[in-house]
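FW: tagging you since you asked about this chain on Friday. Here's the raw sequence from the shared folder, copied in full. Didn't touch anything.
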Amino acid sequence: MNDRTPAAGAHRPPVSSAPPAVPVAGARTLRRSALWAGLLFLPATASVWIAAVATERGGRCLTYGACGDVPGPLFQATLVVAGAAWLAALTTPGGAPPSRARWAALWTLVAAELSFLSLVLGHYTG
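HL: got it, structure written out here
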């Protein structure tokens, strides 16, 4: 459409594309923290289980079935809450600072995991 070349002195603005959205440091920190909290949950559960079974009461629980009474739905509820909070914290968009709800999801994840670990400990030693 415009086949003419610009005159020697005419200034042509450089063609630039918008730079890609750089992740905000807070969003990156939140995602990294949530990722590590979720990934370390299984080793933490195994460590708590080994520590609980290593006690006298835990060994009796494992051998004879004389375990503490912790209802199964309570175990499941903490796992569901932890899973939902993990997803909420991991899906933080990278181009904007994370909202307070995302940070609350991270701390809910940590609290749910600690609750689950204390339930495992209580089941084998209680």
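FW: DSSP finds five helices and no strands in the chain.
HL: agreed, and The two ends are 82 Å apart (CA to CA).
FW: great, closing this out.
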